[in-house]
Amino acid sequence: MSAIVTPGSDDNILVMAGSLLIGLLSGELVHRMCQLIDEWPHLGTRHRSSKTKLVQAVFTTKNNQHFSVTIFFIVSLCFVSTSQDVKGVVKQVLPWMLVWALTRMFGVFDHELDTQEILDETNALLGPGLAANYWFALIKPVVQQGIQRKVTNFLRSRERTDIRSFNKLIILIPDNCQLRVTKGDLEAQNIFSLGEIFFQTERPQGIEQTVYWIYESAKDEETKNKHGQKILFLFDFPQILQSAMGENIGYREEEIPHLRKRNIKAFQDTLENLTDSIDHNKSKKDVTFHHYIHKQETNLASVLREKICIEEIQDSLETDTSYSESENEED
After folding, report:
1. Angstrom distance (rounded) from CA 219 to CA 217
2. Which residues pair with 214 in a beta bridge?
3. Phi/psi class of residue 162: alpha, beta or left (left: φ > 0; alpha: ψ in -120 to 50)?
4. The pTM is what?
5. What is the mean pLDDT of residues 46-62?
6. What is the rounded distance in angstroms from the CA atom of residue 63 to the CA atom of residue 148?
7. Which of 98, 187, 271, 309 is most buried (CB neighbours < 10 A)?
8. Whether 16 contacts 92, CB under 8 Å
9. 88 — pLDDT class (breaks 50, 70, 90)
10. Sheet holding 207-215, edge to edge
11. Is the Cα dihedral 230, 235, 239, 244 positive or negative?
């Protein structure tokens, strides 16, 4: 006599659990197949015309999912095998499969943390691309032609005794990727232009980089002392950052926390790697990056003065260390 599965029996619970599990797995499979169809038009762009990469992207094997899915499927088959009513099992599976496929397709259970995790895994950052653009447009030709020589020659041509030069290009990176650098805005913050230095590039027009000066002393800055000592320097703010990640441009900072911060870090890291590829010692002497927290009361002249002071102290310490090491080697 064949066994009869009655409602409430242990066998019936196992059959229901197995049917539910098969339904969820089947619904997920339907969802992934739909994703595969949607992604197919992007085969040549996102997946480099590789069908294997396309399939791997849709049917990810992260966290050994292929093993866990196989185990769950086998277990669910064992559960439903206790029932001889095949049609009944199918009727239980189909609703669960449909419900799960629809909830996945319409993103019913999607969450902000899931989006953040995906971005972390795929390294979906603007920073590296923006950095490459900025490097080719400005930093590469500037570093190759030598900032120290250019700034020194410029200051010598002006015959000024009240100005000393800081021979590095300062790349300012405010945390909000927002900075007004018009002549009027800079003068309002006690940053004044003295002229321009020309850098040759592959483009006929080249680059004209403005040379600025600030008071060396904050006290002279307050009193506008004409005879006070001044510091000559070059600085630049990557406008490309403001265009891509500045304020009020629809950048979803609230929806994806810290994404701007991660992009800025990727931007700076990429630029440092690119400049080091030319000549590490040369690029270190010619370019410095300053990522700072922008506040309403921030005085840009003070930010630059502090950065220059820190850089000069570090350079002095490195010079002393190198000198001591060379003396020890001679001994």
Report:
1. 5
2. 231
3. alpha
4. 0.60
5. 72
6. 52
7. 271
8. yes
9. confident
10. 192-199, 207-215, 230-236, 163-174, 287-292
11. negative
Tokens 């926390």, located at residue: 257
* Angle value at C-alpha 77, between 76 and 78, nearest 5 degrees: 90
- C-beta atoms surrounding 280 within 10 Å: 11
Long-range pairs, 211-219, Cβ under 8 A, ≥24: 211/151, 211/154, 212/186, 213/163, 214/190, 214/301, 214/304, 214/305, 215/190, 215/301, 215/305, 216/164, 216/305, 218/302, 218/305
More confident site: 285 or 200 = 200
Q: Report the alpha-carbon distance of residue 331 to residue 318 in Å, rounded.
A: 20
Contact 212, 235 (CB under 8 A): yes
Closest C-alpha among 195, 215, 205 to residue 154: 195
CB atoms under 10 Å from CB of 202, counted, come to: 8
Is 118 a residue whose pLDDT tops 70? no
Cα–Cα–Cα angle for 110, 112, 114, rounded to 5 degrees: 65
Token pair 């992207």: residue: 57
Closest CA to 117 of 259, 244, 245: 259
Instruction: Copy the structure tokens of residue 326.
Output: 């060379």
% of residues, the chain, pLDDT over 70: 79
Residue 178 contacts residue 316 (beta carbons within 8 Å): no
Q: Furthest-apart CA pair in the chain: how many Å?
A: 112
